[in-house]
Specification:
Helix content is about 45%, strand content about 10%. The protein is an alpha/beta fold and about 230 residues long. It has a six-stranded parallel sheet with strand order 3-2-1-4-5-6, sandwiched between helices.
Length: about 230
């Protein structure tokens, strides 16, 4: 167990459920809208690069994202924001009614609450409706979307706002995520402790920032923090 931890925060996508369970259900959308999806992914990479050079724009994130995506697709930006919202943000949410969580997630969250940990969630995509469909919306003391800060992980601002919302210094928070580049790096750079859920098939390569804990199943995370 890590000493001094009073809050445990989680990423959502790929962390509380396996990515492949969503990707299978997204296959018809991917086949139909692959050009927009590829441009959307590229736009978010550009935004992450921009974050390293200038302060993010809290009030214009979605407009800026749509403008970059439209420029890549060579289409007018005026209607693309609504299309991204309807097809990606709103369109994917109903799929979560049939997504199955990782084994032992609910039991782990329950025991963490009983143990007195504050529980937080920080996702790069809006998480509230997804949490309701996954039937885990009642566990959290704090739920945030990094996009609402104008930034994407691994930029430190969303993690700082998470710590502020949890009323804890970053050093007292363990952040749990599946992405080394976004979750582990971002949380560590903000001063948080980190737990990295990784596939058993992932190569065990040396990383410049070592997670405080790596695990493959939520039973391991529970035992690490409780037992």
């Amino acid at each position: 167990m890590l000493d001094g931890i009073k809050g445990i925060a989680f990423d959502l996508d790929g962390t509380l459920y396996p990515n492949y369970r969503l990707n299978i259900r997204l296959l018809p959308f991917i086949l139909k809208e692959w050009r927009m999806l590829a441009a959307f992914g590229t736009a978010r990479k550009i935004i992450r690069d921009e974050q390293e050079k200038s302060l993010p724009c809290r009030d214009c994130f979605y407009e800026h994202q749509a403008e970059i995506t439209a420029e890549i697709l060579k289409v007018p930006a005026s209607s693309l924001k609504n299309k991204i919202d309807s097809l990606i943000y709103k369109g994917w949410e109903p799929l979560f009614k049939k997504i199955k969580l990782y084994n032992y997630v609910i039991e782990t969250l329950t025991e963490f609450k009983k143990a007195g940990f504050k529980l937080g969630l920080l996702s790069d995509f809006p998480p509230e409706t997804k949490l309701e469909y996954l039937k885990i919306h009642d566990f959290w003391d704090t739920v945030l979307c990094s996009e609402h800060s104008g930034a994407l992980k691994p930029y430190t601002l969303p993690f700082t706002e998470l710590a502020d919302a949890m009323l804890l210094p970053p050093q007292q928070i363990l952040y749990v995520g599946n992405s080394y580049s976004y979750d582990v790096i971002g949380a560590a750079n903000s001063g948080m402790k980190t737990a990295w859920i990784k596939s058993r098939l992932a190569p065990d390569r040396k990383k410049p920032v070592k997670p405080d804990f790596s695990f493959h199943s939520y039973r391991q995370l529970y035992r690490f923090m409780i037992e």
